[in-house]
């Protein structure tokens, strides 16, 4: 399952939002990735997420493959839509 979404928070994905993203993705057994500008980043790796250098208004694709893929995508989309609580 996959969903395209825009980064909404003013500061983009820096250390705190990246850690929240990884924390949200890790419990799922599905492989969870983020695609941005043709590159694929492991959503369960803080270093991978930070290396994406995601900024406000960047459009990403959240992708999950596995038994709980729907729940994984929904959880990460909800987190992004909440602006990571900022």
TrEMBL record:
Residues spanning the membrane: none
Coiled coil regions in record: none
Domain HPr: 1-86
Keywords: Cytoplasm, Phosphotransferase system
GO biological-process terms attached to the record: phosphoenolpyruvate-dependent sugar phosphotransferase system
One Gene Ontology term, aspect cellular component: cytoplasm
InterPro entries the UniProt entry points to: HPr, HPr-like, HPr-like_sf, PTS_HPr_His_P_site
A Pfam family: PTS-HPr
Compartments where located: Cytoplasm
Function: General (non sugar-specific) component of the phosphoenolpyruvate-dependent sugar phosphotransferase system (sugar PTS). This major carbohydrate active-transport system catalyzes the phosphorylation of incoming sugar substrates concomitantly with their translocation across the cell membrane. The phosphoryl group from phosphoenolpyruvate (PEP) is transferred to the phosphoryl carrier protein HPr by enzyme I. Phospho-HPr then transfers it to the PTS EIIA domain.
Classification via PANTHER family: PHOSPHOCARRIER PROTEIN HPR, PHOSPHOCARRIER PROTEIN NPR
Name by which UniProt lists this protein: Phosphocarrier protein HPr
Lineage, top ranks: Bacteria, Bacillati, Bacillota, Clostridia, Peptostreptococcales
């Amino acid at each position: 399952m996959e969903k395209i979404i825009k980064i909404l928070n003013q500061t983009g994905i820096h250390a705190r939002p990246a850690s929240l993203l990884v924390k949200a993705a890790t419990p799922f057994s599905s492989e969870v990735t983020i695609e941005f500008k043709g590159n694929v980043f492991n959503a369960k790796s803080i270093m991978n997420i930070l290396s994406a250098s995601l900024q406000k208004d960047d459009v990403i694709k959240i992708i999950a493959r596995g038994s709980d893929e729907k729940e994984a995508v929904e959880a990460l989309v909800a987190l992004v839509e909440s602006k990571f609580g900022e």
